[in-house]
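Here is the promised in-class demo. Please do not try to memorize the tokens; focus on the logic of going from shape to residues.
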């Protein structure tokens, strides 16, 4: 089921590939910076936070997102659950 994810009014949040604090990431680790109020269409959201560091969702987006470090765009990211609101689309 598709969802819309909205970034809460917290400034920015960082999507990443590992469920660690952003300050602990290496410079080469892929990240995507999302801004407050930004909307994303997600094709799948795995909310089993136990699998992803206790506070992250694994989100597959409809469109791939370009990491700020460059490289190939990535479709699936880990997102801190406290920084997003989810709106499920009903058919």
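The designed amino acids, position by position:
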């Amino acid at each position: 089921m598709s969802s819309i994810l909205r970034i809460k009014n917290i400034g920015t949040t960082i999507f990443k590939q590992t469920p660690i604090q952003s300050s602990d990431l290496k410079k080469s680790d892929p990240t995507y910076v999302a801004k407050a109020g930004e909307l994303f269409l997600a094709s799948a959201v795995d909310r089993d936070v136990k699998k992803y560091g206790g506070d992250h969702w694994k989100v597959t987006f409809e469109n791939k997102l370009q990491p700020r470090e460059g490289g190939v765009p990535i479709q699936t990211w880990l997102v801190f659950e406290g920084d997003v609101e989810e709106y499920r689309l009903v058919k």
